[in-house]
Amino acid sequence: EAGVAQSPRYKIIEKRQSVAFWCNPISGHATLYWYQQILGQGPKLLIQFQNNGVVDDSQLPKDRFSAERLKGVDSTLKIQPAKLEDSAVYLCASSLDPGAQGTQYFGPGTRLLVL
Amino acid sequence: AQTVTQSQPEMSVQEAETVTLSCTYDTSENNYYLFWYKQPPSRQMILVIRQEAYKQQNATENRFSVNFQKAAKSFSLKISDSQLGDTAMYFCAFMKQGTYKYIFGTGTRLKVLA
Question: Which residue of B has its CA nearest to A41?
């Protein structure tokens, strides 16, 4: 079974530029998550999708971050314009629910550096 | 709001020895799940072990076991016969039943020494 795929793996941009990340969850997983992991901290949930609907985006900085999950499969996360403090690893995860008791499967992450 | 605390930023252990990582959490919920995830230097998070709060029996997965103390809101991870491949960041996570939403701790960096 293929795991969660993310691209790109690394990205370096200047502040005020825009950037987009892509995630392909495990086939059949209804729920998809985007996390931000700042160096030295635990992952923080940015947004949670159930199929193609948003379940929770309470911690998404909506003035600069946006995310979509068209057709309930792939998802993109965009930052526009980027700030220095957006430097982090962006993790995508998916889960099969209901069932599987909440286990989430994570992708390798995209490491973003904003200069 | 729920919080998860991992009070040990870094730990080290000799190969083949046993180490215990601590995790405490704060919640008013009765039905929840607790998880330990491992994040090796390649950065892909992998589930180590999961505990359902309604189960009194501590979960075990090969060399990994937990000590779940519901009343004390404590959920420690014991790694027996430590191996070099266990070197990683370990995150404790809480999930309220039905939300499918994790609250992570800040992590413990574990180094296994040869």
Answer: B106
Q: pLDDT, tens digit, for every residue of A23-52? A: 999 998 989 999 999 988 899 999 999 888
Please state the φ and ψ torsions of residue A106, each to the nearest 5 degrees. -105, 150
**Is residue B101 scored above 90 in pLDDT?**
no
Q: Which of A46, A103, A111 to mutate to test the interface with B (most CBs of B within 10 A)?
A: A103
Q: What is the pLDDT of residues B72-88, one digit of tens each?
A: 999 999 999 999 999 99
Region at A71 (left for phi over 0; alpha for psi -120 to 50; beta for the rest): left
What one-character-per-residue DSSP string does A31-67 give?
EEEEEEE-TTS--EEEEEEETTEEEE-TTS-TTTEEE
In 3D, which of B17, B24, B108, B109 has the Cα closest to residue B63? B17
DSSP secondary structure string for all residues of B5-40: E---SEEEEETTS-EEE--EEE-S-SSEEEEEEEE-
Rounded CA separation B93/A102 (Å)? 11
Which two tokens mark A48? 């949670």
Inter-chain contacts counted by CB atoms under 8 A, chains A and B: 56
Closest Cα partner for A37 from A14, A70, A58, A59? Answer: A59
Q: What is the DSSP letter of B61?
A: E
Per-residue pLDDT tens digits for A82-114: 999 999 999 999 998 755 567 899 999 999 999
A78: part of which helix (H) or strand (E)? strand A75-79
